Amino acid sequence: MSAHPRPGPRERLLDAAQKLTYSHGVSVGVDSILKAANVARRSLYEHFGGKDELIVEVLRRSTAEDEARYLETMQAAGDNPRDRLLAVFDELAKVIAEPDFRGCRYLAADLALADPEHPGHAVTRDYRQRVHRLLEHELVELGHPNASHAADQLLLLIDGTLAAGATRPDRHRAAAAREVAEQILDAALKVGP
User: Fold this and answer.
1) How far, in whole angstroms, is CA 160 from its chain's centroid?
2) Is the pTM of the predicted complex or chain greater than 0.85?
3) Which CATH architecture has domain 56-190?
């Protein structure tokens, strides 16, 4: 029986920071991250140059994971673009119901990072653009007459669902958002030649 090698200091810092910045926000103290990662302060500076770059790497890692979750959710819903898009809202209902749900990591980071030039903002903007493209692609496949605008609307619903889910937690938030999403999607069917 072989033992799994323990992750190195870089991975432990990323893991600890990813958990703590979600549960306590990006303003969580460096000492808390170092303690949770069980690494010396020197490791933070050797691997990331400081807390700001660690936050950026955590955001990059999280956005990649969340984008993959969107793709998996949509692919599991089958080939119909409408079903694929509505599956996103079904998944949001599950996410909101998770016991450790704390809202949207990216909205929280954008609000907490007061410096508009903080590189974390570029990561969250890029993520939202990628999610927008995923939604827009499905809307084009559906034949929606204004796919980009509808993707804006769906993204706003997603953001609102995550925010409301954190502040007024119950599964009905996602169900209400799903109903509005259905109306946006059905607009494609109502526009005829």
Assistant:
1) 13
2) yes
3) Orthogonal Bundle (1.10)
